[in-house]
Amino acid sequence: MTNQMFNTAPATMRDRMGQVINDLIETDAKTALVLADISTTYFREARAKYPARVINLGIMEQTAVSLAAGLALEGFHPIVHSIAPFVTERPFEQIKDDFCYQGLGGTIISIGASYDYGTDGMTHHGPADVPTLKTLPRMQVCVPGTADEFETLLRQTYNNGQPTYIRTSVQQNETSRPVDFGRLQVEQEGSRGVVVAVGPMLERTLEAVAGLDLTVLYATTVMPFDGDTLRAAVANAAPNVIVVEPYYEGALVPEIAHALRDVPMRIDAIGVPRRVLAHYGSPEEHDAELGLSVAGIRARVVGLLR
């Protein structure tokens, strides 16, 4: 069974981010945006029109997060934006203490993950963003696969009262799905096991497992994880679960293991290896080197099913 699909995504996630946030600023007087000198050209008119709600602090990400928390305390729906490692790893303590500890709502949106800025070296790599933030209580984490899905997830979560991280990337699927926050989607059904493909890994995963009689689930929400849909899929398949992730491999394994804690199961993860990436190159070159191309994913899956 194949899920319904619609709309080939016409824009990059970053372009859609600019469009949607500008619309929210214009239509919702409670929306506030805090920038760290990244993507500022998207918001020139909004900054001129609403200087109290569109603020560029420069390269001070810790301060940007704390300022956003202050805006949340005043009743705003704050959005913070920068490159993935700068807006997740650098201000981790502020996210933990200012948002999660105080129970404040806000949205953190990144660009550049995992290695869209692969030619800039490890300082600009972001494969640790999702594994890091998903450790925080109350934190919601979304990994859309297209610009359309980004818009859906942002609009569903930006004012829900919870701290939410939305990860964008240059790489994306060609076709958007009717995603829903907090839900896994069944892309196809099979009997030899279950593959959970996250965000922009979906279509290459579908191509990689063609003919292997596997169920494929699509995840655009990492936290909270939809254990119910996974359990239902596992009930009709062999005891093999493989997650294909665009960040450090194994990040979703604890949630999968918890959802299946009473089910004998073999679980494995395909993602960015946890090692220093010492070479420079494009995202596609990094994927080929790290085994995240279609051929690399298929080789891993076939090996795991033996």
Describe this protein's structure:
This protein has 306 residues and is an alpha/beta fold. It contains 12 helices and 14 strands.
Gross geometry: globular
- Helix fraction? 25-40%
Strand proportion, as a percent range, falls in 15-25%
Order of helices and strands: EHEHEHEHHEHEHEEEEHEEHEHEHH
What structural category arises from helix and sheet content?
A: alpha/beta
- State the CATH class of the largest domain: Alpha Beta
Q: How are strands sequenced across the largest beta sheet?
A: 3-2-4-5-7-6-12
Main sheet attributes: strand count, strand direction, barrel closure:
7 strands, mixed
How many distinct folded domains?
Answer: 2
| Number of H/I helices | 12
Gap between N and C termini: 25 Å
Number of β-strand runs: 14
CATH homology superfamily name of the largest domain: Thiamin diphosphate (ThDP)-binding fold, Pyr/PP domains
Q: Using the CA coordinates, give the radius of gyration.
A: 19 Å
Unreliable residue stretches? 1-9
Any idea of the CATH topology of the largest domain? Rossmann fold
- The CATH architecture of the largest domain can be given as 3-Layer(aba) Sandwich
SSE blueprint and pairings:
Layout: E1 6-8, H1 13-27, E2 31-35, H2 44-49, E3 54-56, H3 61-73, E4 77-83, H4 84-88, H5 92-100, E5 106-111, H6 129-133, E6 140-142, H7 147-157, E7 163-167, E8 175-176, E9 184-188, E10 194-198, H8 202-208, E11 215-219, E12 221-223, H9 227-234, E13 240-248, H10 253-259, E14 266-272, H11 283-290, H12 294-305
